[in-house]
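## Example record

The block below lists the input lines for one assembly entry, exactly as stored, with component labels intact.
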Amino acid sequence: MARTSPRLAYGRWTPFWFLAPAVFALALIGLYPTIFALVTSFRQYNIARVRDGFPFVGFDNYVSVLTDPTFWQTLGRTGFFFLCTMPIEAGLGLAAALLLHRPGLNFLRALARVSLVIPLATTYAVVGLLGRLIFNRDFGVANTAMGLFGFAPLDWLGNPTGAFVAIAAMDVWQWTPFCALIFLSGLSMVPVEIEEAARLETGSKWALLRQVQLPYLWPGLTAMLILRSADVLKLFDSIFTMTRGGPGAATELISIYIQRVGFRVFDMGVASAQALLLLVLTIVLARLYIRFLYREID
Amino acid sequence: MPARMLRRALHGLGLLAVFLFAVFPFYWMVSSSFKTQNDILASPPLWLFTPTLDNYAQVFADQKVTHAVLSSLIVAVCSTGLSVALAAPAAYALARYEFRGKADLWFWFISNRFISPIVLALPIYIIARNLGILDTHLVLILIYITFILPIVVWITTDYFRSIPRELEEAARLEGASQFAIFWRVYLPLGAPGIAVSSIFGFIFSWNELLYALVLTRRDVQTAPVVATSFMSGYELPWGKIMATGTVIVLPVTVFALIVSRHMVRGLTMGATK
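Predicted structure tokens for the full assembly:
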């Protein structure tokens, strides 16, 4: 006998059958490897030295990760990268959103708005290749631009600071539109009557922004901060093609570093321990994200 | 009213700056792809030059590139198709049913959006090596589901929620089964959502580099991997690299323009409408 309550009008197991395929697939290809990585992280697992076997070593890998200054430096560099790029992206994004929100010049506005999609869709690996062309020491346009302002040409990718600035610049190019579009959708949530009334009342753009528009921008800003910080932890493709983390370790962010330990040093045990620590950090971020932004859903 | 004219002019200049900012690197890639090696190496960079199609001739004659584009296409289509097949029923359940653990399940789907590919790339590499499926389309198709499925679940759930419940009740009164309701009512009406999320799935899959880099060797290199492979040697074939870049980026740009209205929702998993 199916237990069907009149209000719900479906069997108790009905949702299960609809969900089972997706849950099973994600468990197999997402969860199982994560557990596999957890097991690996407790083993000595160097795939370049298979003959040693893969003995369990307890927390040795975690100890070596947590006492490895390079790991902490890399994490610090990743945080610094976020602190450098995020304010620029949010600031430029807000400026662009205000320009796009302002009435008038409809064609130019539509054109500028659509063009924002291009950086977002550009293959990250290709962004890196493009960065190498633009920031080339001998024939890059970045140096032409520098020349316009009277600066001497720079070997951007050849020195640590230059390379860091270059990857940050490409990141700003790719993700400012993301911030602009989020702010723009926030601005368009302001009820038209309220905005009109405020415009009549005050001539000051600043007052309008602070007192009328800002409350509608907060949710978007929160989304941006959390998503961009998660994305910086994921950032790999464009940096890999642009600098491979170099020169030295100047642009080696966390994902690049773990990839190097795992696939160039072949120490899967240590790399797995690093990856799981990264995963813990990510889950904390994801929790925050959902707590702040999906309150209405459950 | 000169003040108003001035403000209008500033507004126009600002918008133009936004446009140039967004388009310039893309323009630079496309224009470089039509330059000869000498023109590319010119210093200062050339703004006017005689365009050449040589780079494209080279790219399309290079089997490595055409093969890679084909591989990318196979992987993107299969992983997106599979994700939609798995995610659409799940989205229906999330949109219309109440059950225990729903919030946790939801969180688990969404949290896949946050996970760095390197976390899964390490174990998947070892597992795939043990199974002997490294360097196959299959391994990429399967692993890409981990990031495509959540986005399809999110966007499709949202669409399914907006379908009036009365339609479902009417179908039930006529004796339709739960599956028939999903198949005949929700799937057709939610088609726009499925289309939008499929396009996102395709874009994410097409653009992916890290998994493809570590899980493939020679046989199934995808387009971004091949583009990366040109970056070694003393004198880089810049024209060819930029032509390859254009070939890779153009299809996804077209797709992105089609879904441009949904771009923010796709990238934030719908957190902002």
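Chain B has a mean pLDDT of 88. Chain B has one domain: 58-268.
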